[in-house]
Write a structure and sequence with these properties.
Largest sheet: 6 strands, mixed
Strand order of the largest sheet: 5-4-3-6-7-8
Mean pLDDT: 91
Number of strands: 8
Order of helices and strands: HEEHEHEEEHEHEHH
Radius of gyration: 17 Å
Helix content: 40-55%
Strand content: 25-35%
Low-confidence stretches: none
Length: 212
């Protein structure tokens, strides 16, 4: 596996904006991690524009994937999905509708749980990471409840974390639901980048130990 130009640029950008940090972090799962990816730091127009371009580039790599609507789960998935469909329109001439869910069902106005385009046809879920897979399972249920078909998931970083068994959380989702999970980069590519760039010896050692 080797880094593509957009993947290298994504990692460089994430490090420069401290979206991707190295040190010692406690994850929601309770695990101690030597790195952390915080999509909440895509909090400026320029950063959001860039992340949308990276997702769109990764989707162009997945040429086999056909989808009708991009679904961004609340809350972090909402700006990520909207910036991605803008990038698909402006850079790849693909005008794709998007929608997202409310955490609480609205009982006035138009009501309901879904905002944006109706969930119809083939749906692509777009989110930041999959750690345990709980949030993604909720999305899959929402899509099925609306009579639509989930055809794929794209995330920014595949942490390649072990799930409840011997396979990763991402592999568990793929096996359970029979749909592909793609990512802009994964742990292996981040390690490859640090190795290639140099000057990250201590972090690189911790990352390799964590992977193993």
């Amino acid at each position: 596996m080797s880094l593509k130009p957009y993947q290298r640029e994504f990692i460089e950008f994430a490090i420069s904006q401290e979206i991707l940090s190295f040190g010692s972090f406690t994850l929601k799962s309770g695990r101690k991690s030597p790195y952390f990816f915080n999509a909440g730091k895509f909090n400026k127009g320029s950063a959001l524009s860039k992340i949308g371009n990276f997702y769109a580039d990764a989707l162009q790599d997945a040429k086999h994937l056909e989808f009708d609507v991009v679904f961004g789960p609340a809350y972090k998935g909402i700006p990520l999905a909207s910036s991605t469909v803008i990038a698909l329109s402006e850079n790849h001439k693909k005008d794709v509708p998007y929608s997202f869910n409310r955490k609480e069902i609205k009982d006035h106005g138009e009501g309901g749980k879904i905002v944006g385009a109706p969930l119809k046809g083939n749906i692509l879920i777009l989110d930041d990471v999959i750690t345990a897979g709980t949030a993604i399972r909720e999305c899959l249920e929402i899509i099925k409840e609306n009579g639509a078909t989930p055809v794929g998931i794209i995330i920014a970083v595949d942490r390649q974390e072990r799930g409840t068994g011997e396979i990763s959380a991402v592999q568990q989702i793929e096996k359970e639901y029979g749909i592909p999970v793609m990512s802009i980069v994964n742990l292996e590519l981040i390690i490859e980048f640090l190795n290639e760039r140099g000057g990250y010896d201590e972090h690189l050692s911790n990352m390799k130990e964590y992977r193993d």
